[in-house]
Amino acid sequence: MSEERPVASGTSLVAERTQFAIWRRMTPAEKFAAFLDLQQAAIDLAEAGIRLRYPQADAREVFLRRVARRLDRATMQRCYGWDPDATT
What we know:
mainly alpha
């Protein structure tokens, strides 16, 4: 016999079923709002890590360092006029 397991390790099958039921009841707008909340949480965590490594950085530098994690050096220079390799 095959044992049913949750998709996410470390999550009980009951908890996972409950979460899926909640998601099924959500409207598309509610799902999108949840996505935006998660996206903002990821941005906040990334920026908190940058602030720990660069406590002197102002808001603009924190933004640039976060964006530089996703864009290459040439794009950073072209779009933002900022070279992540030149700033320490």
